[in-house]
Amino acid sequence: MRIWIKSPLATFDGHQELKCNGFVIENNRIVQIPESGQHPDLPVDEIHDASDKVVIPGLINTHHHYYQTLTRACPAGLDKQLFPWLKGLYPIWANLTPEMIDVSTQVACAELLLSGCTTSADHHYLYTDRCPDALDIQVEAVRKTGIRSMLTRGSMDLDRDRGGLPPSSTVQDTDTILSDCEHKVDQYHDSSPDSMLRIALAPCSPFSVTRELMTKTAEIAEKKAVLLHTHLAETLDENAYSENRLGCRPLEYLESTGWMLDSTWLAHGIHFNDSEIEKLGYGRTGIAHCPTSNMTLGSGCCRVLPLTEAGANVGLGVDGSASNDCSNMIQEVRQAFLLQRLHSGPEKFGHIRALRLATSGSADCLRWPGIGRLEVGALADIALYRLDEIRFSGVGDPIAGLVLCGGHHASDVMVNGIWQVQDGQLLNSDMEKIHRQHRDLAIQILQDKR
Ligand SMILES: [Zn+2]
Question: Domain 2-56+396-424 belongs to what topology?
Fold first, then answer.
C-alpha cells in the first residue's frame, strides 16, 4: 500500500520550511519526497490532496499526566502555586480507580491526536492500593487509541510523615516499586526503531521520592537501557526544599543519585543557573518545556535558547490537565512561541523555532530518532492542517499562520502510516461513549473523598 500526500500548500520538515510536491508513504515509512512539480517514481494506491493544507511532522508531547483530565479547572487547584496546588489536589487524585485511568488515558490521547500529536509521553506516578496496575491499564488504553507512546513507570515513596509532600494514601513502598519497574520494562518496552510503545522509569520529584528510590531506579534504568524521567527545577519552592532538606541544589541531588544526564529527560527545568545549563548541554539532557503549565502555576520561564545553544535537547510538553488545562499540542506551540519571545525577543525566537521544539526537539528529547522529521526513511507520523477557518483568513505565510493565528485542530493525522484522524474527526468510533464515561467519572472523583 502506497499513499501520496500530494502538493501541500506548505511544508515544515521538522527543521525548516521544505519546498516539495508531497510525501510518498509505503507501509509505515516515508519512502519518497518528490520535488516541486515532480510526481512519484513509484505507482501509488491512494492520493491525498493536500493543496489546501500545511503539512508538518506529527507533534511529539514530552510530558503529561493523563489522569489529570478528570480534574481540569478543578476548584481545589485554582489560583495556586505548585506546592499548595498539589496539596489541594492529592486527596482528590487518591480516589483514582482503574476505570478512571483507562478512560482518562483514552480521552487525553484523543485530544492530543486531534491537535496533530502522534507521539506522547505520559508520567503516571499515582499507584494507590486501588490501582496497583496503573501502567498495565494505560498500555491497553493507548493501544486502543493508535497513538505512539512513551509510558513511564512513575513512583512516589516519600509521604508527608517522612518529610515529603504527598499523603500516605498515594505512595508505595520502595521495594514494591523497584521490582515492578524491572518487571514492567521486561513486559512492555520495545526499543526497536518502529516501536509503538517504549517504557521509561520516572520517580515523581525530589519532594515525593526517597534518595534510595532515586538511586536504585537509576541502576535499573542503566541495566535495562531505558530512559529516566522526573520533574526538576520547576519552582523556587522546590529549589528551597532541595537546599534545606537535601543539602544541595536539585541538579546536584540528581547527579548524586547516579542519574546519567545523557539518558534523562526532565520536566520543566526552569530554575537552573548558567553552570547548570552548561552541564545539561554537555550531557545532552532532555528538557520538556511546558509553557502553559508554567504560566498557570506562575512557576517561571524555562530558558529554552540558552539550554538549546548549550546542547540540551529541549522538547515541548503540555503537562497534566490540572495545570494546562487542555492537551492541545498545536496550541502549546503557540504558547511556547509567545512565552519565549517575551523572554528572548522576537528576533531570536520565531515560529520555526517553536515548531522545532515540538517536532525534532521533542524527538531528540525522547531519544527517538525516527520521528519528528519529514525525511526519506522517517516513520510516517504526519499532521495536516487546513487553514480554512476565519481565524486564518488573510494569512501571508501559511506555516507562520498555523502558529500565529492559533491553529487548534488538525484536519488529518497519520500515525505509523495509518490515518487516525480524517476531516477533523477521530476514526476511533468508541470516542463518544468514552467521552460520556469521562464526564461521569470526573464527577465521581470529586465526590469520592478518601
Ligand atoms: Zn508534570
Answer: Urease, subunit C; domain 1 (2.30.40)
